[in-house]
Amino acid sequence: MAFRMLLGALLFFLGGCSTVHVQNDYDPNYDFSRLRTFSILYTQSRAGSSLNQDRIAKALKRQLEAKGYVETEKKFADFYVVFHTNVKDKTKIVTDYERVGLHSYRYWAEPRVPVQRHYSYKEGKIVVDALDPRNKQVFWRGTATDMLQSFKSPTERIEYINKVAEEVMSAFPAVKGANNVQTPSASPASPFDRP
């Protein structure tokens, strides 16, 4: 019985942590309507390989181009995109209630005692910033956090990175014709701390 409860708690924990958690923030006074071109700038990463850095850049480029933006050289860009990645060790505490007693036929009467289980895992985080080239100020930010997963092949890893990029950039406004750009509709969230 205790093993089944432990297994159930572990599956619940792993299932709950496998969903990408995304947050967005932006400057409500920023004029998104003038944006047409972008350039992705690389920064020093505190986690991951250069392979993953390239995959992330390609995934972000794909999302922005799907929204109508055009990639160009840094000196011609209307805005810059900079992303940062980070990995932290995390611990999750789950409390189970195990039955104790000798009489299985008196199942209802057996007392339950709380037992805490500690699970260690690594949490990955990506922060995507859109900067104005004129003052280098961030005017839009998207973050995604998730429990790091193991992948059997590079294809699976690329698919996962594409999924994360799509979720992070979903709130970035799309170009809607020459003079009509969709502006963010959601209320701005609280500013995020830099990793």
Describe, in plain words, how this protein is organized in 3D.
It is a single chain. With 195 residues, the protein is of the alpha/beta class. The protein has a domain of 121 residues: 2-Layer Sandwich (Double Stranded RNA Binding Domain). It is 25% helix and 33% strand. It has 3 helices and 6 strands, in the order H-E-E-H-E-E-E-E-H. It has a 6-stranded mixed sheet with strand order 1-6-5-4-2-3. Helix 2 crosses helix 3. The radius of gyration is 22 Å and the shape is elongated. It starts with a helix and ends in a 26-residue tail after the last helix. The N terminus and C terminus are likely disordered.
Which key features would you list for this structure?
195 residues, 6 strands, Double Stranded RNA Binding Domain, elongated, 3 helices, alpha/beta, 6-stranded mixed β-sheet, 33% strand
CATH third-level topology of the domain at 20-90 and 120-169: Double Stranded RNA Binding Domain
Strand order of the largest sheet: 1-6-5-4-2-3
Structural class call reads: alpha/beta
What portion of the residues fall into strands of 2 or more residues? 25-35%
Q: Kindly provide the radius of gyration, computed on alpha-carbon positions and rounded to a whole number of angstroms.
A: 22 Å
Overall morphology? elongated
**Name of the CATH architecture of the domain at 20-90 and 120-169:** 2-Layer Sandwich
N- to C-terminal distance: 42 Å
Pattern of helices and strands: HEEHEEEEH
How many alpha or pi helices? 3
- Determine the mean pLDDT: 76
Strand element count: 6
Unreliable sequence segments: 1-17, 178-195
Give the assembly state of these chains: single chain
Percentage of residues in helical conformation: 25-40%
Largest sheet entry:
6 strands, mixed
